[in-house]
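Hello forum,

I keep getting stuck at the same step: I have a sequence, I want structure tokens, and every attempt I make locally crashes halfway through. Rather than fight my setup again tonight, could one of you with a working pipeline run this one for me? It's a single chain of 112 residues.
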Amino acid sequence: MLKRGKLTQSFADCVPLFIALGDSTRLTIIQHLYEALPDGGSCPAQGLNVKEITEQTSLSRPAISHHLKVLKESGLIDVRRQGVCNYYYLTIETAISKLACLKDELQNACTE
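Reply #2:
Ran it on my machine without issues. Output:
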């Protein structure tokens, strides 16, 4: 029963990721943030602000802000304040860790 609880918790931990990744607009935003990474993604990015993301997606600022909030809550992005601007950038390590934990729990459940 304890193992089932761990699997249930792993799924619950990943729900925000599944919600965030289940929307094509959010995937487009992730792609733009990835493309903004210096050195092809090998080092932390300065990020993009809402205006830049809006220009690249042709969505309204409120719509972009909503999608950024969902992505931030999922742990896929974070925000850095510089002056009066907020810059959004990818932070996927926590998300990858949660998905890896879910994978491990599923593998354990299948081998029992």
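DSSP finds five helices and two strands in the chain. If your local run keeps crashing, start a new thread with the error log.
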